[in-house]
Structures are given as C-alpha cells and as structure tokens.
Amino acid sequence: MKFRRIQAPLLLVTLLLSAGASANDSLWFGVKAGTLGIGGEVAWRPIEWLDIRGGVNFYDYDDTASYAGVDYDGTLSLDNYYLTGNLRFPLSPFRLTAGLYVNNNEVSLVSQDMAAYPIGNNPIPYSPADVGTLTGNARFDSPSPYVGAGFDFDILDRLGMSLDFGVLLQGEPVVSLSADGLLADDPTFLADLNDEVASVTSELSDVKAYPVVSLGVHLSLIH
User: Fold this and answer.
1) What is the pLDDT of residues 29-42, one digit of tens each?
2) What is the full DSSP assignment across 190-217?
3) pTM for this one?
C-alpha cells in the first residue's frame, strides 16, 4: 500500500511535467490537506482560462462510533486519486471544478465488548458468546464524480495558495458484516444480521455526498 501511494503521485508528476514542458505552458505542483486527507497535486494550464489537475489524497482516521445500537472501533481510510478540469474566470481567483475520483475510501468496523448486542429487528438482544466479534466494512462507488469551486491566490512570484470546496458523489455505501460467535452460521441470526446491515447502510448513507474542503500551497515550475 505504501509503495503504491508513493508510486502513483510520482508517475503523475512525471507525465504532467513532460506534457507541460513540451507545451511550454504554466505548470505547478502543490501539497494539500483537508477532509479527504493529505496529498499532492500537479496542475497544467494549456490555455489561460482552463487548467487540468491530477493528484492523490490519503489518511487513516480512527474513532469510535455506534451504528444500529452496536458500539464499534472504526477506521475511515481515505485513499483516492483524481483528475479534474478547472474553468478559470478572467481577472479573478475564482474557478469552477469538475472531475472524477478513483475512490478507494473505506470504513472498517470492529465491535466493542458489550453486555448484549441488539442485532437486526430481533426484540431479544444476543449475548456476547452468541455474537463474538462483529467485523464490518463499507466501500463506495469508484469512479466517483466530483463538482466544486475554488480559489487560487498568488502569494509570491512562484508561490501560491488554493482553497477548494465541493462534493464527492460517492454513492450509497456497500456494507458487509460478519460474526464469529456461537451463532455465526445460524439461519435466524444471519437473517437478523442482514437486517443489521440494512440499518448500518442507512446510517452511513449520509456520506454518499461527501463534503470536500481543502487548503493547498503550490509552487509554479514553468511559465
């Protein structure tokens, strides 16, 4: 995973450097941080009012959460690559952005110890021995479209700052849950576990339109 994260942005930088150098147009590299994690970005401006940007974001965020009555230790793994087109406005830092993300964002869940587990629509909670440990996973659509707006500001001769605001339309989560307790293969328990999956999916559906806010610093390489 670490090698892939390093290799992808280096390849992106190499390709865009080659394209920018041959066209002798504006090219810059930046670093960003925001709700999609931290990462890097390369931009090439073939014409004055349009630029093309590609980049990578990643970050792992650990937290605790409760879904459908069950407490979990969770990890939000942010891992995505993108390509966007940016329509720039003359004499203004403002731009409109649209593009696609290779979306590897993922939520991983491991249940915490509880006295009883309310699973699905069963009115009687299950015991810890019956459930064991619940392990869950949620993934999203890939590729995912992105729409947003941004601002690019010049600070010094070749140094600038960027702000981005947008929405990553990553779709309904695809959720899976499994258990390793005494009833892991019991048909009634599995039916309740399917109902639990539906409940967790509904609660995670809030992130199908994932808000994107980021701040970046960029350095111009070619004018």
Assistant:
1) 999 999 999 999 99
2) HHHHHHHHHHHHHHHGGGGEEEEEEEEE
3) 0.83
